[in-house]
Amino acid sequence: MATDPAPTLIELRDVYRIYGHGEAEVRALDGVSFKITTGEFVAIMGPSGSGKSTAMNVLGCLDRPTRGHYLFNGVEVGGLDRDQRALLRRHYLGFIFQGYNLLPRTTALQNVELPLIYKGIGRAEREARALAALDRVGLAKRSHHEPSELSGGQQQRVAIARALASDPKVILADEPTGNLDTRRSEEIMELLQELNRREGLTIVMVTHEDDMAEFADRLIWMVDGQVEFDRPTRKGAA
Amino acid sequence: MLWETFKLALQAIRRNTMRSFLTVLGVVIGVAAVIAMVTIGAGSSAQVTADVETLGANRLMLSPGQNRMGPGSGSSSARPFDLSDIDKIVEQLGSIGVAVPTATDQLVAVFGNENYQTSVTGTDSGYLTLSEWELSSGRGFTDAEERGRSVCILGQTVVDELFGSVSPVGEDIRLGTLSCEVIGVLEPKGASTFGTDQDDVIIIPFRTYARRIAGTMDVPMISLMMRDGVSTDRAVNDLTALMREIRRIGASDEDDFTINTMEQLSAMLSGISSVLTGLLSAVAGVSLLVGGIGIMNIMLVSVTERTREIGIRMAVGAQSGQVLLQFLVEAIVLSSIGGLLGIILGMALGFVGANALNVPFIPDPSIILIAFAFSAAVGVVFGYFPARSAARLDPIEALRH
Fold first, then answer.
1. A220-233: per-residue pLDDT in tens?
2. Source organism's superkingdom (chain A) (predicted)?
3. CA triplet B321, B326, B328: central angle to 5 degrees?
């Protein structure tokens, strides 16, 4: 078992995402291919307009490729319709955003419960699982605070707990430290790294900060909608 | 899931209590207006029925010719009745207790320097029995007086107009060329259902009226009273059969007389009141429509304000249908709350209005249910468009909002 290569979780095969037609055509993704295996911590970087956010939206099944194949766990998901993609997100994906995207005037616990409601999990189990997720990010004691009563770092932790609560196969983090100062950013990255190392959670993260990318094992660098290079980070290589 | 959605809707409504309240105000007013109208309407119908009963519930009126619009209103070329018809009715019909001739004209009554135009009815003492009318002073007609003496009984209004505080009994008044002695005063009855003053009347013996005022012994109308325990149908059937025989109407010919019952009168009056209720309710319905548009407007605002929330929900796996349901349920809950408030307010208004108009307060459970269902339906109809626009949002755009 130990010698088996880890299974491929995500594979983009020659993926295009094209906006507009003819002269006005914009190729946000211009033939992107890469694989991500279970347990990896991947950072996607690139200058603005390089297509990293579009790649993230496609990976998150919020957007669909114009052409090419997206295999999730070996299943073609690029052609799924809106509601099927919602189901995929519900059961397999967890999101972390730059702006936290917590529901205002809603407690941390209720925010974390949100994905579990859509999974149809009953109240008691939902609360238990949401509390456990908050515990994993070190915020069990703040479960009844609303976002406005929490610091930026704490809000992002709640968002991470929300992503964890539904037991996803992969966490997609879009600039998770973009709104935080250096110290909070490192705390968040350490938390993600720990979840990756200790629990084997697969994480794909878009960032534009080199320091943050260094927490990942592997860096995919994009320019003009294409992958320019794809190599282990210093930490990953070590 | 539905329960969660319901709780979520309540939360969203509570978060903006003032705005939610103002939003549903249109529905509240609409429903309250409908409930109040219908409640007061039902009360006045009941009042009308009760009023008609004070005219004498067992009363029938027989007039010549075909008329369908109530007693006295149809002129026709049909033969009038004569006094012998009345004798035959009383002798031959066990279902009829009292039958008296009735004729009415407007005349000026004069006493001293006072004169006053009033309604003069020529009839017999049985009239007081069948209209359940007592005398407040004096006495009724004797048999001798009914054969044609110049005596009269006054309604309270006539007494007030002609005599002021003087006791009228024993005085003589003049009706046209007829001078007659006041022998009694009627107990005041007040205004009728039609709003006319029932006490504005002078009653004189029919024969006196026929000879001295009408100049003919024809009987223009016969007032009758059924015996206790006799059904209206039976009395009407008996009377119809007898009148057809007396008037020699062929088996294939139509009646040339009309029998009006108090039931018909009551139904006609209730009909008028329900038409009015219907019209007012239609106006109230327009208010509900406007209320619904208010809800649609505020739900559209809400969808715009909560675009990011919608994006978050979609990101964590909400399907379009679930987002649609969430906003639809919110609109329905909102309008149903409006409906409930409207029902409470409408009942209160109905109670106050019924008391003010002196009619009984009769709450109608079915109209309450209908009003509630209708307000919920307003939520469905006017919540659907905003909910659909929420469900159609693109999650990426929504998250960026």
1. 999 999 999 999 99
2. Bacteria
3. 90
The residue to which tokens 């295999």 are assigned = A71
CATH number (domain holding residue A190): 3.40.50.300
Instruction: Read off the tokens for B362.
Output: 């009769």
Is residue A106 in some structural domain? no
| Contact flag A101-B313 (C-beta cutoff 8 Å) | no
Residue A111 lies in a domain: no
Predicted model pTM: 0.73
Answer yes or no: is A119 within a domain. no
Domain carrying residue A73: 8-98+168-232
Asked whether the predicted pLDDT for residue B73 surpasses 60, the reply is no
**Average pLDDT value for chain A:** 93
Pull the structure tokens for residue B231: 């059904």
> What are the chain B neighbours of A83 within 8 Å (beta carbons)?
319-321
Q: A124 CB contacts (<8 Å, ≥6 apart)? A: none
DSSP string, A59-98: HTTSS--SEEEEEETTEE-TT--HHHHHHHHHHHEEEE-T
Instruction: Tally the domains of chain A.
Output: 1
Taking residue B1's Cβ as centre, other Cβ atoms within 10 Å add up to: 10
Decide if A177 is inside a domain: yes
Most B-contacting residue of A59, A117, A126, A171 (CB-CB within 10 A), to test interface: A117
